[in-house]
């Protein structure tokens, strides 16, 4: 089931898992797009905090966040320098641009960590068969997050439309 976050009223102590795209709206140093969604998500985050709800986080989300931002910056850097054949690992990772961007991303990650609770994903308990079934239709990480939320009775906050393509029991909240 999908619900717009503007139509959802969180209750005390509920738990929410934010997809990477939600963190990108909130903290991507390169983003600054779709300001209405940014504002809606920011307001929802404030509401969750005042309702004493937890935002759960695992390391895979932080990995996606840092990698997505670095890849965005790499593409911007290639265009700005007209170096369209630049190699990510050979050219970009050794640049001062990378070092500056990494520091900004680290600052964003520290902000995310302050707003959320770290949770183990208990990979040994995940129903990997469900993940692999859904992986036939949607991204592996999305299938994994969906199973993680189902297993823990978490609400999944995401702007990804792919979840409409599969059957699932998780409540997905959308900006």
List keywords for this structure.
globular, alpha/beta, 175 residues, 7 helices, 6 strands, six-stranded parallel β-sheet
E-strand count:
6
Number of helices: 7
Helix and strand pattern: EEHHEHHHEHHEE
Report the sheet-strand fraction.
Answer: 5-15%
Radius of gyration: 17 Å
What distance lies between the first and last C-alpha atoms, to the nearest angstrom? 14 Å
Mean pLDDT: 93
Structural class: alpha/beta
Largest sheet: 6 strands, parallel
| Widest sheet, order of strands | 1-6-5-2-3-4
Low-pLDDT windows of residues: none
* Spatial shape: globular
- Give the fraction of residues assigned to helices: 40-55%
How would you portray this structure in words?
- The structure is a single chain.
- By secondary structure, the chain is of the alpha/beta class.
- It contains seven helices and six strands, in the order E-E-H-H-E-H-H-H-E-H-H-E-E.
- The protein has helices at 20-27, 35-50, 59-80, 88-92, 96-115, 128-135, 140-152; strands at residues 2-4, 15-18, 54-57, 117-118, 155-157, 172-174.
- The protein has a six-stranded parallel beta sheet, with helices on both faces.
- The longest helix is centred in the middle third of the chain and has 22 residues, at 59-80.
- It is globular and about 50 Å long.
- The mean pLDDT is 93.
């Amino acid at each position: 089931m999908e619900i717009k976050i503007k139509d959802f009223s969180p209750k005390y102590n509920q738990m929410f898992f934010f997809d990477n795209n939600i963190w990108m709206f909130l903290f991507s140093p390169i983003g600054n797009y779709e300001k209405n969604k940014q504002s809606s998500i920011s307001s929802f985050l404030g509401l969750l905090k005042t309702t004493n709800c937890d935002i759960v986080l695992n390391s895979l989300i932080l990995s996606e966040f840092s990698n997505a931002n670095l890849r965005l910056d790499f593409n911007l850097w290639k265009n700005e320098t007209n170096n369209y054949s630049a190699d990510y690992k050979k050219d970009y990772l050794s640049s001062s641009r990378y070092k500056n961007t990494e520091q900004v991303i680290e600052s964003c990650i520290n902000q995310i960590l302050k707003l959320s609770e770290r949770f183990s994903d208990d990979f040994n308990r995940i129903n990997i068969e469900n993940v692999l079934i859904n992986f036939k239709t949607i991204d592996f990480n999305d299938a994994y997050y969906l199973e993680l939320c189902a297993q823990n009775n978490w609400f999944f906050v995401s702007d990804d439309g792919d979840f409409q393509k599969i059957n699932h029991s998780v409540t997905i909240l959308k900006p």
